[in-house]
Amino acid sequence: MVQRQKTLATFGAGPFATGDTGGGRFGHYTFDDEAPKLLGILLAEFDNREGPIIKHYVPRGNDEVEATFHFTKALIIPKTSMFRHSFALTIKALDCKVLMFPVGIDHQDYHRGRFTFNMSFIVDMTSSAETMYEPIVQKCAEYLIELEIEYHFLTDSKYRNQLYEVMEKMFIDLSTKGESVIEVVIDEDQIVTLYFKLCPSYRGIEPPEIDYHMVPMFIREVELSPRLIEKMDVLSQKIIPQIDGINTVREIAIILELDPSLVARCVRNLHFYECVSLVPMFLYWNTYVATERVHDFYKNQMEISDCLEFVKIQSATGEDGSEIPMPNPEFSDVFRLYLSMRVPDEDVENGAIPKKSLEQWVAEEKPRSMGIDEHRLVQFGMHHQFLRKLSNYPICTVNPGNNSLLKACNGKTSVDELALTHNIDPGVLHHLLKKSGKFEFVMK
């Protein structure tokens, strides 16, 4: 049995987003004028006797901030189906919007087995601040979830004053500077640092939503020194070391026993700041073909060096635990293997593109005999766009009626996407669709 040791995948150069760069702790941008103003922050909880209550709000003495609670009481502590979702409520009477991310933590330690809270941010109804503060609301909730699970930061009375101080500092810093660094002292001997940064419109686009089956890969050099790790938030400290160019977002979540949405949030931020790229999940059923960019690879010595280091079999051990010596990959073999991933020349029935799965390709080429890990070879090629994945798109040839699967088979949704949606192996789904005789297939 061959076992592989997974290592951090990093390509290219450049400072890591949380490091000390010339642009400052949080990145290269600052607010030219004033940061978008917050009207207030409101922390609400569900009390088992009184129902939804205000735990604390800032700034103190602001009647309008307190008044928002009475307008939004039912939504601030909503039904469980709305937990861990971002949403905003406009209150025209107060000319404001309330940005929320309600949370319910289930555990036997809590009365009735659940603790429910919501840290809401209040902004001007006509301001553009909503889009900038929305990620902060979710990030704040994620911090509080972690602090509550680890240290009972929200429910232990010994942290009450410190919680209020955190809210007040966050309110002042974000309103004046657009960023805040807050140190939370745990049990007098441990410090947890929270980082917040308002994020203006970046390159005129929004970061993509993260599919749990995508694989994040670093595109900036990252050396996980203790000094750098200390600067990360609690979640990032756990998640970033697991980004190795192999694990999907869902697999990282399983390894760390975290909610996949939290991992996706971290990866989305890294992608936003151009620290990681996202490549499709590796499957032996997939078909990969070389692109014209593979010829540029031939001339790029830095990429060649990175590739040879990344694609080699990391470690191999026999059944008795002894290490099996593996040959170092040669560039000539790597380049030939990339070129061999192509669409066959011969024609087939109905003019369809011939399909050779990676499993068939591995059986023919035997890359491991050359010390090359086919999984890493494909991921490196996908990341650098030397390869692209061909996808099979089913087209339903009968009336789909109200059948959701038949409706989805419209030539725009691939078999892989359908398989993920319906939790079935892509090869099995393709076989079932083909066997039914109700579908034509287009590969592109």
TrEMBL record:
Gene Ontology, cellular component aspect: GATOR1 complex; vacuolar membrane
GO biological process, one term: negative regulation of TORC1 signaling
GO molecular function, one term: GTPase activator activity
InterPro entries in UniProt: NPR2-like
One Pfam family of this chain: NPR2
Highest taxon of source: Eukaryota
Family: Belongs to the NPR2 family.
Designated name of the protein: Nitrogen permease regulator 2-like protein
Organism: Caenorhabditis japonica
